[in-house]
Amino acid sequence: MSQKEIGIDAFAITVPFLPNMSGKEIEVIDGIKYYRTNINNRVKNEISDQQKNTLKRINKFFAIGKFIPNVYRLCKREKPDVIHAHAMFFCGIPALIVGRILKIPVFYEVRSLWMLPKDNIYGTFSRKILAKIALKIELMTMRFSKKVFVINENLKDTLINLGIRDDKLIIISNAVNTSLIDQNIKKQERSVVRKKTVFGYIGSITHYEGIPFFIKALKCLKKERDDFQMIIYGSIRDEREMKLIEKSISEFALEEIVFFKGQIAPSEVYRAYSEIDVIVNPRLKNKITDTVTPLKPLEAMAYKKIFVGSDVGGIKDLLNDNDDCFLFESESTESLIKILKEVIDLTDSRKEEILDRARKHIIDNKSWIQNAYKYKKVYLSSIKN
Q: What's the whole-model pTM score?
């Protein structure tokens, strides 16, 4: 959408295994044309961190075969100057083949490497093998692409260690749609003066987000003071983690302090922000959280909310020593409690100073528009060459 705002005429092609709820072959959303390559698939795919069926992964791989002719047909019709494919290789390989045939430069975007080992998520031998194969194909896709966009320095370093050339990798970090957020802020009800500081988590319920750890810290903090609450908005991607959260709330007798409000639609997320003073991201440390940057810190600052997060690589890299955020030592209850106390005790003037500076930083450096200009510069450079 932001690329369109700066004069880039873009269209999108969706993969055949994604659901097409409308049943239409072409949809126009926010002025951008979307070509649906599977008009018969109306089954909504479940997004989950649970282990996926091996057969489903294999079927996805073979879906590439029927995706390639569609990409070729549509690129032949639309005549793009560049092809920008998003990971995984289900998109990347068709883009490379069509790009080679039509002599169009192909750019590949990688935002994470899910196949890196973490917390025994693979489980079975077959899943371990599939993960290794997937990683090899991903790396091959990157090597054949003109350039590879990555989300942060940590992911770039990981890919260099895996054999991808430094000069092929371009960092374009996470960003938020500040224009949309400005519109949403206007919709929010007038701020009310709260007697208690309200901490909030908005995102997916997964193990590595560290919500039970945060709840445990609140139990300890409750022994010293009672001027805080916690609201959780989240889509449940890990049922076991949700049960652990519910158990923690009950076991620590925090039912009057911690409230789970379920999933909230993206179009309504501004309502969640209006209920919260401080956004928390208490991520646990692993290979994924050290290389993947969350979006919520940026969104929180754009909505003028204090941000508290763990010092995992993905968050540190995103914030880049930003003094307007509060980081604690990952998985350290003592460090987290110290930060929570500091945040609760902020004076109104100090808080307003932090919020104003943080929001200005987002507008100047972390907006979709800023990223759109970065992409455009790389595209133009490849076309001229």
A: 0.83
